[in-house]
Write a structure and sequence with these properties.
Strand content: 15-25%
Strand order of the largest sheet: 3-4-5-12-7-10
Distance between the termini: 47 Å
CATH architecture of the largest domain: Orthogonal Bundle
Number of helices: 11
Helix content: 40-55%
Shape: globular
Number of domains: 2
Bound molecules: fe (ii) ion
Number of strands: 12
Length: 325
């Protein structure tokens, strides 16, 4: 490119409100990332945003329509599945949404790149929400390696158990988020207590037991969208037991949200499968025997049945629960 051309590659004639911008691959106005997605704002004009989005494989994501909302997605790379009718979209396929007052769910079948055009300032909203999530996530990760790894592992088994129970996409989505963030309330518990290699004193135990309530509060402080209210409630209930012996409220049976019933089983399975400061890891056979023993007591029977199927598939795929992160 000559010097003259270079100067002209950005011609901004403000008096006529004309502009020409030529950008190269990899350039963007703003970007935000979290573990499963990267958003790059390529261009914007008033309320129109053009975004390039990358999403990792095997992620459920949703598009939230609304009156007056126009959205367009063009798939550049990878494959996604529309979860309502299992239609597969390939590169070059595109989706247009106008005035649709519902949430639509897709799942990535591989790593995906797409171009996303919207007439609502989604980018700034998303950006805020993702930033909040990142902040929360950092709080977990700053605590201890063990809690961090535990939270990551839970997402996969929770989702599989939820699918086994034919949970709606809405519930699956909130379950996945809650699984990841369920122990966020432990961010306030001193590390000496979390990593104490002995039985906790009654005072220490009462501090640990507050983590579901603290977790709910933290989620509500960070998040604005109503979606996270449900996530916050699942977190609040993840130590409730089917027979009413759990905490903080002693809820029983179906008073406990289905997502929290699932999270409770998966949480215990993972905790028993891994070494804790106060307890050696059990082998898979011992862990499953313990889960079955607690069926109808700590755990909802139908959730245990679904979990056992999901766990079997999980193992059949060669995933070792003691290694998975
Ligand atoms: Fe917990
Ligand atoms: Fe946990």
């Amino acid at each position: 490119m000559t010097e003259e051309n270079e100067k002209n590659s950005h011609i901004n004639k403000a008096q006529f409100n004309l502009s020409l911008e030529i950008n190269e691959e990899g350039e963007y106005l703003d970007s935000v990332s979290k573990k499963s997605t990267l958003l790059e704002l390529l261009a914007q004009q008033e309320n129109i945003e053009i975004i390039k989005q990358n999403i990792v494989s095997d992620k459920v994501f949703k598009i939230e329509g609304n009156e007056g909302v126009f959205e367009f997605f063009y798939l550049l790379k990878g494959r996604i599945k529309y979860l309502d009718n299992d239609k597969i979209l390939n590169p070059g396929d595109y989706i247009t949404i106008r005035n649709l007052k519902q949430q639509i769910y897709f799942k990535t079948l591989s790593e995906v790149d797409l171009i996303y055009v919207t007439n609502t300032p989604i980018f700034s909203n998303k950006q805020e929400e993702i930033k909040s999530l990142l902040e929360l996530n950092e709080e977990i990760e700053a605590r201890d390696q063990q809690t961090r790894d535990h939270c990551r592992r839970l997402q996969d088994l929770s989702r599989r158990t939820g699918e086994e129970l034919n949970l709606s996409q809405d519930k699956l989505f909130s379950l996945i988020f809650a699984s990841f963030l369920h122990d966020i309330g432990k961010a306030n518990v001193p590390v000496e207590i979390l990593q104490k290699p002995a039985k906790l004193s009654p005072e220490e135990w009462s501090i640990v037991k507050k983590h579901p309530e603290k977790g709910k509060k933290m989620i509500l402080e960070h998040m604005t969208s109503s979606f996270f209210e449900r996530v916050a409630d699942i977190i609040l209930q993840h130590h409730e037991n089917y027979d009413g012996t759990g905490y903080p409220h002693g809820l029983a049976g179906d008073e406990i949200m289905i997502e929290a019933q699932i999270l409770s089983v998966v949480d215990s399975y993972d905790a028993m499968s891994h070494r804790r400061p106060y307890q050696e890891a059990k082998n898979r056979k011992e862990v499953l025997a313990e889960i079955k023993r607690c069926k109808g007591q700590q755990f909802a029977p139908k959730v245990v049945d679904a979990f056992l199927k999901a766990e079997e598939r999980f193992i059949a795929e060669g995933i070792n629960p003691q290694e998975l992160i």
